[in-house]
Amino acid sequence: MIVGVPKEIKAQEHRVGLVPSSVREFTAHGHQVLVETNAGAGINYTDKDYQECGATIVQNAKDIFAKADMIIKVKEPQANECQMLRPDQVLFTYLHLAADADQAKGLMASNCVAIAYETVTGAGGRGLPLLAPMSEIAGRLAIQVGGAYLLKHLGGRGRLIGGSPGVEPANVVVLGGGVSGYHAAEMAVGMQANVVILEKNHDQIRVLDSHFGNRARVIQSSRDSIERYVLNADLVIGAVLIPGASAPKLVTKDMIKKMRPGSVVVDIAIDQGGCFETSHATTHSDPVYVVDDVIHYCVANMPGAVPMTSAQALNNAVLPYALSLADKGWKRALMEDPNLRHGLNVCRGEITHQGVAESLNLPYVPSPRDLAA
Fold first, then answer.
1. Are strands 2-5 and 288-291 parallel, antiparallel or unpaired?
2. For residue 357, how far is the Cα from the chain centroid?
3. 101 and 334 in contact (C-beta within 8 Å)?
């Protein structure tokens, strides 16, 4: 199979679909890898590094899309990339289609086979192994950037997350106790904040309570508890995820209006539309905006701020699935692995993920009709 790795073109995105060590694995399996020139420059990998691992360097993305059987990326294809996709060409990347109707329509028009990292499931259909490493990084980053924007000269309340001897630390509220919420809470606890985790799932509440003990309070999430703790927070982390679907709007405009001036919200769920009513996507070059004196950080590719860490973590997780697709072809790989099959979002012009279809109000086709052919 010919595998293509174009350079990421989304604003401030420095990660790369395959690092050189991953390229070496593909070439060892007998595949040809085409890498766009300078694709790894953002994380200090040179064209020579890729060539030494067996890649062929291509001067532009157009040639990669024209020749490759499978495109491996990090972020969702931009409009001009959607136009370069071909029928039956495999696209393996993050898509986050529930909040992006234009991209979904572009993928449908291309008749490609689009497999989303974020909806591939783990053993027994549990967990999201290709989303987890980025969720872990986003959760940890959320506390770092949230703490920074609490600084007075950046518009915040002037509150130190960990406080000081004799002075109360900041109140940090984490909405959602999944992977990103867990890691956000870990960081906040480590910085000695007052931490509250609001979680809906009873089993996960028990897990979190057992892990954190008296280091953080784990509270059943409800409209009442969300309002009570959010209004008293210095920093709120939105870390709620419904796989493939739009994030629920847990914090209303009215709650934002009642929050303390200079408090900060960080919306990790912004890729799926965000869980604050006042959220809209921002970029690393212009990361925040203010609504009713509350600072909003809603960068849609948070792990892109630490590309050396996140690209390697992502490659570690993605590589076995990507090799399966290359070695077996997409039909056989999906037939043999139901967890990888859950990643199929768009196939030959049809939406094949129920959560995406419902979020976009588009017809849902459970699986490609000729998958077994």
1. unpaired
2. 19
3. no
By annotation, the residues acting in catalysis are 96, 271
- CA distances to 99, 198, 294, 301 from 162, rounded to whole Å, are 35, 20, 20, 27
3-state secondary structure of 235: strand
Which helix (H) or strand (E) element contains residue 80? Answer: helix 79-84
Residue 243 Cα distances to 62, 152, 205, 240, 248, angstroms: 32, 36, 19, 10, 12
CA distances 289 to 10, 171, 294, Å, are 20, 21, 8
Q: Tell how far CA 321 is from the center of its chain.
A: 17
Which candidate, 150, 142, 198, places its Cα nearest to that of 175? 198
Tell me the sheet residues that pair with 90.
70, 113
CA 261-263-265 angle, 5° bins: 135
Return phi, psi of residue 71, to 5°.
Answer: -105, 125
Give the chain's largest Cα–Cα span.
Answer: 70
CA distance 239 to 193: 18
Instruction: Please state, in angstroms and rounded to a whole number, the distance separating the CA atoms of residues 45 and 19.
Output: 8
Radius of gyration of the chain (CA): 21
pLDDT digit string (tens) for 241-284?
877 678 899 999 999 999 999 999 999 999 888 999 999 999 99
Summarize pLDDT for 110-149 with one digit per residue, the tens: 999 999 999 999 987 788 999 999 999 999 999 999 999 9
* CA dihedral sign, ordered 281, 282, 288, 292: negative
Domains annotated for the chain, with CATH where assigned, are 2-120+307-360 (3.40.50.720), 132-305 (3.40.50.720)
Alpha carbon 91 to chain centroid, angstroms: 16
Letter for the amino acid at 336?
A: E
